[in-house]
Amino acid sequence: MGHIDVVSEREFDDPVLVEGLPGVGLVGKIVADHLVGTLDMELYATVHCDGLPAAAAYAADERGVTTPVRLYADADADLLVLQSDVPVSPDAAEEFAGCIEGWFREESVTPLYIAGLRADRDDDDAEASPTLRGVAVGGADGILDGLDVPEPESAGLVTGPTGALLAHALETDLPAVGLVVDSDPQFPDPVAARVVLESVVEPLTGVDVDAETLKTHADRIRRAKQQLAAQMQGGEENISQAQQLRMYQ
C-alpha cells in the first residue's frame, strides 16, 4: 500500500508545495532542483506510491539510496518541494495524488502545479520573459490575487501527470494552483523556470531563490537536463504540458 515515509520531522504552518515532475521544458524539474540546491533543503520524506517506477536514486559523494520521487522541506519558509528523477505516467500521478491527499489535508498543504506551454521563441525575443498564467481550484484563487500572474488569455488543457494532479484536486475540492508558462518545446528551459521562481515562489514564500543564476548558467543547466529530456521524447502521455484549445466558429 502506498505511503509517505517521513524521515525528518518538521512543523509546518499551511505550507506551499512546489511540484517538480518532468514536463515540457522541464520547467517544474528545474524549479524543484534549483530550490533544493540553492536553499540546501533537507530530505523530508520518501514517496512510496503504487504506480511510481521501481527504482533507487543515489547522489554524488553519498553511499545511500532513496526513492526517485521524494519531498524536501524548508520549515522556516513553510516550503515543500516535490522532486522527481523519473517521468511519471498520468495513471501513476492519479495513484500518487490519492496516496498523499490525506497528508495534504492534514498539513494544510497548497500545491503549486507547473505546466509548460509549448511556445517557440525566436532570436528577437529570446531574452524576453515567457508569459506566465495562473489557474486555481478548491478556493486557492486568493493566492494568485496577490501576485502579478494574469488569468489565461485563451482556453486550454493541462495534460500528463500535472494535469492528472490538477484533475484530482478538482474532483476532491483540494486547494491547488496551476501555473502555465511558455516553454521551449524541445529543450530544457531555465528561462521559463526563472519566471516561475521570481513571479510566484519568491514573493509567496519570502525566500531568496537566487533565480539569476539560472540565467547565468543556462547552457550548463540545459546540458545537464538534456538526457532526461531525450528520455521523454516520444512519450507524450508521460509529459506534463499545457496546450491551447482552438475554437472554430
From TrEMBL:
Signal peptide: none annotated. InterPro entries: Proteasome_assmbl_chaperone_2, PSMG2_sf. It holds the Pfam family PAC2. GO terms for cellular component: proteasome complex. Residues 211-245 form a coiled coil. The keyword Coiled coil applies. SUPFAM superfamilies: Cgl1923-like. This is Proteasome assembly chaperone family protein. Keywords: Coiled coil, Proteasome.
